[in-house]
Design goal:
single chain; alpha/beta; 23 strands
Length: 531
């Protein structure tokens, strides 16, 4: 959501890290002070939050269209676990489809349609993105490199990377998806993924080095491995026409285990080179999800799965296929909390701001007529000069007149709005914090109130092309989901001629591979328990 140009200049006074100004404080109760703890999330779809819906099963991805960032992802839930000790400030700059190269390079997210006379710049809503012409009636949507957002103010960087480098979506499509999967294409995808993963792992140390160079010297990177994406049941693809078969399930699980082993060595060597534990390596994700993976097909018939199968995502949002669901993100966070242990804040880099205002949402979204809580847990002030008041100001229509203007002495504020506020209207919430000595800081975020309590998800405007068999093409050659739509009736309900699926429910090979990988994991001492 963008603000009108006239209003934007007025809002500059309410920037996220505004310099505190002296005012006379009102008489109010002094609040307990907690040190700030800043967390930055980088990476791909598994970090952004694809598949992490709210408690009502609604998608609430925002703010960058196509990045699929969710406040219910594992990183956000991990951050919330620290709120009893710190004023936690969690920022998510991960983006679905991200590769290691997108740490340093701009990334094209999608293509949108426009009128011939419409400027591409008119689509821009956030500083993190830009649009440029890609034809007379189209604009390409780009985001800046994720490395841009790493600085010395963060205490911890959470991340997953390398899955898209290996061609994750090609494996899902060519090995699992009914009507697309085949022995030949699955084997090619696994072979290509093996080569690409080796290349990605070789490039990872340089990426970690670039991140560490921009961080606080005491900050850490928590690198998380991926869960297995297929249940261990000896899944086999067969080609009865060509008399061929591939033990796809075991091969894919073994590939993921081998990647984890290589990553263990990379992280250990990198930490030794740096002379300290810069990177904490969380490799228990597979253990958390063991037995909770889907079985390939259309319905993914493991009733206990914590990873979305194809028809779990309705309508058919291909970007959510084979990603953790809401429960999966919750369990991932709990596993990391348990494994990482207590975390300590870095010595704060000296800043000009003696206090910071922070709203725990990049966009405040609520349901009409239902109470919701505004949260300022991440706000912070220097030791000895605590925050004593929180002033909440809500403008329903962007005219600069606040329909709600309330000052409280608690970090949360519950309100109910009885009218719909469309996201096309430039409504916003402003928070002003005041310290005991009279210093203030402020921040402003967009406000949306509707019947669903969700940010509108813009449907793709471009129809997917069809292949020579009349099937929708929904991923590009780099295995990134395309921002296109297709008629669900075109989605295959049966396999290609000659393709059959069988399984060995004992899954002996997969279990043997997993046991072998577990035996080569980094020791707890090598991984580093806590900060």
């Amino acid at each position: 959501m963008g603000f009108p140009k006239g209003l934007y200049s007025w809002l500059l006074a309410f920037s996220l890290f505004s310099i505190c100004q002296s005012v006379k404080p009102e008489e109010t109760a002094e609040l307990d002070d907690k040190p700030p703890f800043r967390i930055l999330q980088l990476g791909d779809s598994y970090s952004a939050g694809n598949g992490a819906w709210d408690s009502r099963g609604q998608r609430r991805y925002h703010p960058i269209e196509g990045c699929y960032r969710s406040k219910y992802n594992w990183g956000s839930q991990f951050a919330q676990s620290l709120e009893d000790r710190y004023s936690v400030q969690y920022v998510n700059h991960a983006c679905s489809g991200g590769k290691i190269e997108h740490l340093t390079d701009d990334r094209k997210v999608r293509t949108v349609s426009r009128w011939p006379w419409q400027s591409c710049s008119s689509f821009k809503k956030y500083d993190e993105e830009y649009y440029k012409s890609s034809g007379r009636v189209q604009c390409s949507h780009w985001v800046f490199p994720q490395l841009n957002y790493v600085d010395e103010s963060y205490d911890l960087v959470l991340m997953t990377f390398a899955g898209n480098d290996a061609g994750f979506t090609h494996i899902v499509t060519n090995c699992f998806v009914t009507g697309y999967r085949s022995v030949r294409r699955c084997r090619e995808s696994i072979n290509n993924a093996t080569r690409r993963m080796e290349d990605a792992i070789q490039r990872l140390p340089e990426a970690l080095r670039k991140i560490s160079e921009r961080m606080n010297p005491c900050a850490k990177i928590a690198y998380n491995v991926y869960p297995h994406i297929i249940f261990d049941f000896g899944y086999i693809l067969r080609d009865t026409i060509g008399n061929d078969s591939i033990e796809a399930g075991d091969m894919i699980r073994q590939l993921s285990n081998q990647a984890d082993e290589a990553l263990t060595d990379v992280v250990r060597a990198f930490n030794e080179e740096m002379g300290r534990e810069v990177v904490y390596f969380y490799d228990d994700t597979k253990t958390v999800f063991e037995g909770r993976e889907p079985k390939p097909g259309i319905t993914g018939n493991n009733p206990d799965r914590w990873i979305l199968a194809i028809l779990d995502s309705s309508p058919l949002w291909t970007a959510e296929w084979y990603h953790p669901n809401t429960r999966g993100h919750e369990e991932w966070a709990l596993g990391l909390i348990d494994d990482l242990g207590p975390v300590d804040v870095c010595d704060r880099v000296q800043v000009d701001n003696p206090c910071i205002a922070w709203i725990d949402d990049d966009t405040v979204v609520s349901i009409v007529g239902e109470p919701f809580v505004l949260d300022a847990q991440g706000s912070w002030a220097e030791e000895g000069d605590p925050i004593v008041s929180y002033r909440w100001m809500l403008d329903y229509d962007g005219d600069g007149i606040f329909e709600i203007d309330q000052e409280v002495d608690t970090v949360t504020f519950e309100i109910t709005i009885d009218e719909e506020i469309d996201e096309e209207v430039d409504a916003f919430v402003t928070l002003i914090v005041t310290t005991k000595d009279g210093d203030t800081a402020s921040t402003t975020v967009p406000l949306i109130v509707n019947a669903e309590g969700t940010v509108q998800q813009v449907d793709p405007e471009i129809e997917c092309e069809l292949d020579d068999l009349g099937r929708p093409i929904f991923i590009d050659e780099d295995a990134i989901p395309l921002n296109c739509y297709f008629d669900p009736a075109l989605f295959p309900s049966s396999d290609l001629p000659g393709v059959e699926v069988s399984s060995d429910e004992t899954g002996k090979k997969g279990k043997k591979a997993a046991k072998k990988a577990k035996g080569t994991k980094a020791s707890k001492k090598g991984k580093g328990k806590g900060h």
